[in-house]
Each structure stands twice: as C-alpha cells, then as structure tokens.
Amino acid sequence: MPYQVTVTLASDGPVRLPDNCGRALHAQFFAWLQQGDEALANHVHDEMEPRPFTLSPLRPQKNGHLEFHMNVLQDDLWDTLWAGMAESGRLELLNSAFKLVQDELKLDRRTYEELAHAGVETLIRLRFLSPTAFRSNDMNYPLPDPVKIYHSWLARWNQFAPQELRYNISLLDVVQAHVAPSYLRIGSEVLDFGSYKLIGFRGLVSLRITRPRALGREILGRLNALADYAAYCGTGHRTSMGMGQTERLR
After folding, report:
1. Following DSSP, what letter does each residue of 4-31 receive, concatenated?
2. pLDDT (tens digit, 9 = 90+) per residue, 102-145?
3. Which domains does the chain have, with CATH numbers?
C-alpha cells in the first residue's frame, strides 16, 4: 500500500537552509528507518532499486514551520519508518535543530487495488512540483517524454504492487502509439547536490490518450492507474532526494 505522510518541522529560531535540502532529508529518512530496524534500513540503502520511497523538497510555511512529504510504497517499510519517527522528538538538519511536530503529521494512503480502479479518462493533467529528469544512455534527460514518464511509473508499480496487479511492459508500446503531450507550461531548474548538479523540468504537462476506443477500458484504466500512482512514486530519477514530485490534476 502506498503511503504519503506530511512532516512538519519547527525550529527554536530563524534558520538559513540551502535551496536544495534533498540529501539532508534523504539522510534523515534513513536515520528514522534505522531507529525502527537497522537491518532493513541497510537493505533499502544498499540493495533496493528502484527506491521504495520518495521525498519532496523542504518548503517553508506561513507560520514559520517547514514541511515536506515522504511517500512510502510498501507496507513493511512504512511500519518500520513510523516506529522510528514515533521515537523521535528533535532532530538536526544541516546543523540546525528542529522539533518534529507530531500533532501536525498528516497521512494519506491508498491500496494498490484502489489505485488499479482509477477510471478511464483520456486527458492526464499533471503538475511536476519539483525538477524532473530521466536517466537515459548515461545522460540526464530533462524533458517530459510520455514514454519515459510512463516507464518511470511502471517500473515502480511492477516492483511494489501485488503480483496479480502488475502490468506487462508492452503497455509502453501503447504509450508510444497513443499518448502525446497536448499542453506544456514548463521551465527548467538546476538542483545543486553539492558534488554534482542536475537540471530538470518543472510545471504543467497534459498528456492526451488518442484513439481510446481502440484501446478499450482495461488499457485506459491501467494508464490512469499509473498516473494516479505518480503522486506516491514520483517521476524520473533522484526521487528519493526531492526530484520528480508529481501531482495529478482533476
């Protein structure tokens, strides 16, 4: 079951953080996971690809608090993470001290079965909330290519969804033949990760599914299910460090 938890942090005074805290939030995620189960944390860190979680960028709020989202794609990981967070009261992020505001934690979750019954819409409207890019031929590819977008979602779905709900890779042939951008309002943004930088696109993208009658309701449903899943699994690479956060618009 995919989970999304909104985490709120409060500081004792003004703090100055860099624009991109992706690596620091990544480290904090694993610190909480280690508190719950060190062996599982090491397994996820060293062996699991694609990552079974995504993280949003850290955003300031009007009340002075900071907020970010953690998305977890499988149950056992969520249970362990939640146990680690429950033990945490204060934390340090980039040499600044914060309090975890427990009563402002917000949880959203949907089963894979619920996501699999997403409807049969022919217009997929997306907002990419953080810079998004793909890894292609050992290069960074910062453009909203429909096949790369769906391949990203499908890889995570087939890794973490129950076996009976997984989709054949041939679904990407359908995307190639039937899905095209119908609207773009995007810009590019560079993220500095310290030892390297990445460029990604950010903004609004609409994908139109063409000739829907030829596809049938089952295939349309799968394309819609993956689009709904994007809110949890993110899009592209470096989603565990804040890139590729995706929202489906209705």
Report:
1. EEEEEEEESS-----S--HHHHHHHHHH
2. 777 788 999 999 999 989 999 999 999 999 999 988 899 999 99
3. 3-109 (3.30.70.1890), 112-249 (3.30.70.1900)
